[in-house]
Amino acid sequence: MDSAPGSWGFSRDEAVPINVLGGKRQVHDHLQNFYGVSCSVLEGRTNSRRRGDFGHNRAYGDAVETEVRRVPIRTGVTLPTLLTGPHRDVPLLLLHPWGESRRTFDRLIPLLPGFQIIAPDLRGQGEASKPDDGYSLPEQAEDAAALLEALKVSRVYVLGSSSGGYVAQQLALMYPDLVAALVLVGAPLSLQTRPSFADEVDALKDPVGEQWVRDSLLRFPLLHRVPTWFVEDRIRDGVRMPVRAWKGILNGLIQADPPSESGTIRGPTLILWGAHDGLLPRRHQETLADRIDGAKLVVYPGVGHLVLWEVPERVAEDTTAFLTSVGKPPAS
């Protein structure tokens, strides 16, 4: 499916340019048609109850036992961490993007039943501690390593989505013996070029408004249907973040030396990228694959930057096949 610049989940003929944000009624109408339900989330009217990580919810249903443990770590913060699935010698650590939380994996985790999952809220996001500092890329990776240390995990597979994949690369660079394999989902090669929306983030003041978060999502075209409840959750993730976290994390990502330029990332690596990603060009993904010995690049036609949002089933299928091929196969 072709995508016009600035479209949100529509064919070229239905595209809504981002710069038409003044006409939000038009955007809302298109989104309502796309989702097939009332898109009150983009109008500031949401009545749905926030889903927890346990039991009866849309993502997990009744079949998966989960635990959310608040884990104090040696870097001085506490990371609420979802732990689920059967015990495995090599668990799977999930690292979410900037501005989201562990709940961004709500639609992926049920599709990975054979894996022991570790999914934290990272510093400054979700229900994690939100200090004034500590948001550089190496510090974010150190938090991940400290979490695994606190959980007594000595070897782990790591899946990182978007900027979470940048943290995953840094973790693999800093702790090569800790990371058994990487799955990078819509992850950057480099973020040193200041993005156009950085000025908007610099201008933010507490409390972060829901409308700003909604509008920020329009930067990323969606070419597949995404459940409204999932989008609502991501908006809540953004609103609950203080401005210091929005700014600190973005600045930490921009100022960081790209991990693949700072040293050699070793270990089996799978790179999953959407062919319609308007943020990360294909040549960067090919360069990233070239820099990691033996890395495999899989391109998803008709998918944008938000790979995990759009095609969690494909991510789960490819992740399972890849990790099964590099380590002990998960239980069926």
List the helices and strands and how they pair.
Elements: H1 24-35, E1 66-72, E2 78-84, E3 92-95, E4 117-120, H2 137-150, E5 156-161, H3 163-174, E6 179-185, H4 198-202, H5 210-217, H6 228-240, H7 243-255, H8 259-262, E7 269-274, H9 282-291, E8 296-300, H10 307-310, H11 312-326
Parallel strand pairs: 3-4, 3-5, 5-6, 6-7, 7-8
Antiparallel strand pairs: 1-2, 2-4
Helix pairs in contact: 2-3
In short:
This protein has 332 residues and is α/β, with parallel strands linked by helices.
Question: Roughly how many Å apart are the termini?
Answer: 34 Å
Highest-level CATH class:
Alpha Beta
The beta-strand count equals 8
- Which class do the helix and strand fractions yield? alpha/beta
What share of residues are in beta strands?
5-15%
Rg from alpha-carbon coordinates: 19 Å
Structural description of this entry:
This protein has 11 helices and 8 strands. The protein has helices at residues 24-35, 137-150, 163-174, 198-202, 210-217, 228-240, 243-255, 259-262, 282-291, 307-310, 312-326; strands at 66-72, 78-84, 92-95, 117-120, 156-161, 179-185, 269-274, 296-300. Strands 1-2-4-3-5-6-7-8 form an 8-stranded mixed sheet, with helices on both faces. Residues 1-52 and 54-63 have low confidence and may be disordered. The protein is globular and about 45 Å long. By secondary structure, it is an alpha/beta fold. The two termini are 34 Å apart. Helix content is 33%, strand content 14%. It has a single domain, classed as Rossmann fold.
Features:
alpha/beta; Rossmann fold; 332 residues
